[in-house]
Sequence to fold (118 residues):
Amino acid sequence: MNLAKLKHIANESTPGPWKVGNHPSKVVAPCPCCGDIAVCAQYGPGEETENYNSKYIAAFNPQVALELIVEIERLRSELAAAQRRFEMSSTTSTDRGVILDTISDLIDEWKAAEAGGK
Fold:
């Protein structure tokens, strides 16, 4: 998902709020000079489907898209920070010492088993 591209598209679109128009096949947005303008007109298999589609399109308008992008970016940032904290905490000298001691013990056990098996 290209968030930058989605953000650009949302910023360049007709500002909202978007809503279902006077016919279920139209989604409209306010225009300062001429009242509501249609931002989407669709024709489908029936009025009920057109109404659901219009409600969906109006609900996921550019402002909502931008808010979702901000939330995705925030969560990605938090995840990256948490990963960095984990990486830093798992490579402390104490942890490295424990890991090296464990590896050393395993090597000694392996060598002893090898020597005993010959």
